[in-house]
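Re-run with default settings, no changes from the original entry. Doing this only to confirm the output is reproducible before filing.
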Amino acid sequence: MGLIAGCGMLVAFVCSITLVPAMLALLNPPGEPTSVGFRGLAPLDDFLQRHRIAVVAGTIILALAGTPLLFHLPFDFNPVNLQNPSAPSVITYRELQKTPETSGVDADLLAPTLDGADQTAKRLERLPEVSHALTLDSFIPADQGEKIAAIRSAPKGLLSALNPRQQQPTPSEQDTVAAIRTTAADLRKAAGNASGTGADAARHVSDLLIRLAQSSAATRTKAVAAIVPPLLINLGQLRLMLDAEPVTIKTLPPDLVRAWLLPDGRARVQILPKGDLNDTNVLRQFATAILAAEPSATGPAISTYESGKTVTRAFIEAGGLALLSIAVLLLIALRRITDVLLTLAPLLLAGAVTLEVCVLAGLALNFANIVALPLLLGVGVAFKIYYIMAWRAGKTRLLQSTLTRAVIFSAMTNAVAFGSMAASSYPGMSGMGKLMALALLCTLAAAVLFQPVLMGKPRQLNVSPSPLDPLAVPAE
């Protein structure tokens, strides 16, 4: 994105100093008969200049007072929150997250031995952010002797029904209909006049069986195809359950053992979170608690959390480098430290206010909308350079000038282009549009309302105003 934006700006710059002047010379549009500035802002312009000290001090104090809010600026590192919440995949994932075992946001770590893994799991389970922890031993049932004895004491009639000595002949169509009617009658008799969920279900199934008995043979064939195969599977599983044997690590499936125990003896521990896993704060607390207890932990929850931290650090570094680069370029172009500071101060103020408003409005940063912050630097410093150059040329009454009109219309076009993304159904795209529109609004206010007041009167006044901009005449 940075490469595309940077190359695009270079192309736009080349066009602005070559194609645009050539088109103006070729088309030779007529000049404006009168100024196109904002005459109606003259009272506000005069008020701000008369009370410039109070306005500058009040703005800085207000921005500094909101600085503690920056410590509460949230970063939503959950990439699922960037997707369309109405998408079937997102709805299914949200449902899976209601159960820790299927949430997909667990943490993992390796212990030197299986016994060490069991001890680590017991220790981590005591954390309030942990639902439970699993190891290979979690797949071995407890109290197997008592359970196997209970299973083997099952009635012999059940075993003989599951394992008949001889196969019964296939029933005829008349036998099938008669069996269905008999079953329906038995269900109706069992339900009787009772009320409740069980009795109502019995009567409902009885009605369905009667309808099935009255249907055609083809319909009963479809019913057999839909009911009998799953029933055979269930009966086969029940048959295996009644033939239970003790479970040990050696009898577990090799693929399962390989996923939890390495050949060198190291064992895996899986830690499952507790709470609403759709809440980013819950995931953050879980990840930080696990890392505090086991710094070597990894897994989806840890990698997602650390990805958010990495992106945040990267943008802080990029922002710092961008400010440094901007300061160096400004120093080369303006050749005055004070002018550089007068350009950067409103830019930093706009950035701080933008983030403070995000906290107050509950707008969290995420992997998508964080790209609005470099945009704030690029567009913001351009606006402020315009005012610095006009101020150095001796221009006054900047709020009423054609420059302010050009800056406002430029900001409006950007705000419409980027802000239109706020209407997207995708939260990631919508959040990007909202933050970009907010950043443009703050940097525009800092450039139009704050910077002229911060600069004050020009060092030298322009005594030969342009005929197209009479509002630039000195106030004296």
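Residues 10 and 29 are 26 Å apart (CA to CA). The first helix runs from residue 2 to 27.
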